[in-house]
Specification:
heterodimer; A: about 290 residues; mainly alpha; MetI-like fold; 2 domains; two-stranded antiparallel sheet; 2 strands; flat; B: about 375 residues; alpha+beta; Rossmann fold; OB fold (Dihydrolipoamide Acetyltransferase, E2P); six-stranded mixed β-sheet; five-stranded antiparallel β-sheet; 8 helices; about 25% helix; elongated
């Protein structure tokens, strides 16, 4: 095979970078459009969409849309609600699903395989299918609060958290990851006298960073982007998350500048969370292939 | 430290029985090696001692205490794994201290034990490192250190040297032997490498097909193998086998006959041998001499010459198609294609009946009865 000249190598490198830049732009453009538009008055925003100006911070630039958004809806409350519900759910979900994964991967108990199959099978059931029955269930559940026993969980944080404390995908991710860990580690820990819980907490979880990061990001996105369920279970503004809050901007007259400002604000937590975990997430995807 | 005893120990996975009844007594402070080919059940047996595999039937005692239903941590054992099984997120210190922390040992005691083990294993400079920052040999020593700090009654080693390169393997083998001498601990060691078995063991258990084929000192196994399997497994190159017929039985021994050797009287206890029985004569390559120097001579065509310097491995094929290997003096002039003679003494021969069971040899080297280390 003839050896490639430096020129062909440079051309090939240029082409590769060109394609990568193009793909990156395709992904970045909507975000740039959102951010830039959030700084423009609605009229200018609409007229700019037919040209490259849509992606450029030109014309009448200001933070007025942000100020107006806060006046139109309790944005800070919505963002707090979403972050609170999502964070609590993700943390508890990771604990519960990793424990379940640990049990499926390492412990011997009757019916384990059948149970795992049932758990995996629930992956194909969408939330929309069970939303109504679930609503009936949570509407009749008791809760012990400051005023004694209350019935019905509607209009609360718990109604947005508890139904999502475990999910099949996260359990599956942990099972797959744990099954690839060397069994010798477990056995060494057993000989060292560790209980199953100590093995879980002190041996397995500390070396499960990649799968924890992956599961955390997937869960965070799924929870943060929830719309249907919180719409059904939160009638009062006090507990509403950001996605339900978006409705406030489509009542009466829609101001697209304000919509873009609101969207920009609610995107920040997602980006921050992803950037914090991206290294572990990419490691997981790269080292474990489809498992991650 | 403690003795260990197995009585009719069996292990089944469903309908498949992998350990088919092993009886074994290990004295306090003894170094016992389980050896055998892949799949013979040696690691399974070790894991049964450790409590990592349940015992299907039989009794296992450590220090006079039945341990069948005890958890690994309650058996007074420590194990060194083939993969080392070090906790990757913990430093060398924490790897060794983990078991003691779990047992809620006082901090000062943990520190003293870990530092003592590190001193024995020359690991002091590496205590703050993670396993990934260590070489294979150092990792192996950490794994041994983790076992030492537990102060176990029985040390278990599962092919601990198989991931090391050849030079390091020799060094670590010597270190393990020294450790055994220094600690005086009961140790059980699994390997498929007969050199490790021969050099380390006070007692070897040769396992095959789920049975203990023979239990004895290395020299017993080498000089008085109980059957064809042990004879073939212990010793390298493998023992030569010659199919023979019993031609006579007398108080002097057993006379055998075969086309390549004619008739030969072997100093072997005849037992139940009868004239006309089929048998197998075994002779080790290292008992062969070049030329007609010893009692029994076989002639053949030289098919292989491997010169190792101090000795030469030759293989000849007789006119009857019998292949024989011999280790002869390294300076002997011999070439491929030559017709040559190999000879051996009748006293060096082993004889096995048609079922593969060995007849008792009458002339056994004194070393078989000597204590280890003499």
């Amino acid at each position: 095979m003839p050896s490639r000249t430096p020129e062909t190598r440079a051309t090939s490198l240029f082409m590769r970078y060109a394609i990568l830049v193009l793909v990156a732009l395709i992904f970045v453009f909507p975000l740039v459009f959102m951010l830039v538009s959030s700084l423009k008055p609605s009229m200018q925003l609409l007229s700019d969409t037919s040209s490259i100006r849509a992606f450029l911070p030109v014309g009448d630039i200001s933070l007025d849309n942000y100020t107006a958004s806060f006046a139109r809806a309790p944005v800070a409350l919505f963002i707090f609600n979403s972050i609170f519900v999502t964070s609590v759910t993700v943390v508890l979900n990771l604990v519960i699903c990793s424990m379940a994964g640990f049990s499926f991967a390492f412990l011997d108990w009757k019916g384990k395989d059948v149970m795992l199959s049932i758990v995996i099978a629930t992956l194909i059931v969408p939330l929309e299918t069970i939303a109504i029955p679930l609503l009936l269930v949570v509407n009749n559940l008791p809760w012990i609060g400051a005023d004694g026993i209350e019935w019905g969980w509607l209009n609360s944080y718990r109604v947005q958290i508890v139904p999502f404390l475990s999910d099949a995908l996260t359990v599956f991710l942990f099972v797959q990851y744990f099954r690839d860990l060397p069994r010798d580690l477990i056995e060494a820990a057993r000989i060292d006298g560790a209980s199953w819980f100590q093995i879980y907490a002190k041996v397995i979880m500390p070396i499960s960073g990649p799968v924890i990061a992956t599961a955390a990001i997937l869960r965070f996105l799924a929870m943060y982007n929830q719309y249907l369920w919180p719409l059904m279970v939160t009638q009062s503004e006090q507990y509403r998350p950001v996605m339900v809050g978006l409705q406030y901007f489509f009542q009466l007259n829609t101001d697209w500048g304000q919509v873009m400002a609101y969207l920009s604000m609610i995107t920040v937590p997602v980006l921050a969370f992803y950037l914090a975990l991206q290294r572990a997430f990419i490691t997981s995807i790269a080292s474990t292939g489809i498992k991650g | 430290m403690a003795s260990l005893s197995m009585k009719s120990v069996r292990k089944s996975y469903g309908a498949v029985e992998v350990i088919k009844g092993v009886d074994l007594d290990i004295a306090d402070g003894e170094f016992v090696v389980f050896v055998g080919p892949s799949g013979c059940g040696k690691s399974t047996l070790l894991r049964m001692v450790a409590g990592l595999e349940e015992i299907t039937a039989g009794t296992m005692e450590i220090g006079g205490r039945v341990v069948n239903d005890l958890e690994p941590k309650d058996r007074g054992i420590a194990m060194v794994f083939q993969s080392y099984a070090l906790y990757p997120h913990k430093t060398v210190y924490d790897n060794m201290a983990f078991g003691l922390h779990i047992a809620k040992a006082p901090r000062a005691e943990v520190d003293a034990k870990v530092r003592k083990a590190a001193e024995i294993l020359k690991l002091e400079p590496y205590l703050d490192r993670l396993p990934k920052q260590l070489s294979g040999g150092q990792r192996q020593r950490v794994a041994i250190g983790r076992a030492i700090v537990r102060n176990p009654e029985v040390f278990l080693f599962d092919e601990p040297l198989s991931n090391l390169d050849a030079a390091l393997r020799v060094n670590t083998r010597a270190e393990i032997a020294k450790l055994h001498r220094d600690l005086g601990a009961t140790m059980i060691y699994v390997t498929h490498d007969q050199v490790e078995a021969m050099t380390l063991a006070d007692k070897i258990v040769v396992l095959e097909g789920g049975y203990a084929q023979q239990i004895g000192t290395p020299m017993e196994l080498y000089h008085t193998p109980a059957n064809l399997f042990v004879a073939g497994f212990i010793g390298s190159p493998k023992m030569n086998y010659i199919e023979v017929t019993v031609a006579g039985v007398s108080t002097d021994g057993v006379k055998v006959a075969a086309p390549d050797i004619g008739e030969a009287l072997l100093p072997i206890d005849p037992g139940k041998a009868a004239v006309g029985d089929r048998a197998t004569l075994g002779i080790r390559p290292e008992d062969m001499r070049h030329g007609k120097t010893d009692g029994i001579t076989v002639s053949g065509n030289v098919e292989l010459v491997e010169r190792l310097g101090h000795e030469t491995l030759v293989e000849i094929t007789t006119t009857n198609g019998l292949d024989l290997k011999g280790i002869i003096d390294g300076t002997t002039l011999i070439s491929l294609g030559d017709t040559t003679d190999l000879s051996f003494a009748a006293a060096s021969c082993h004889l096995f009946d048609s079922a593969g069971k060995a007849f008792t040899r009458r002339e056994v080297p004194e070393v078989v009865r000597a204590r280890r280390g003499t």
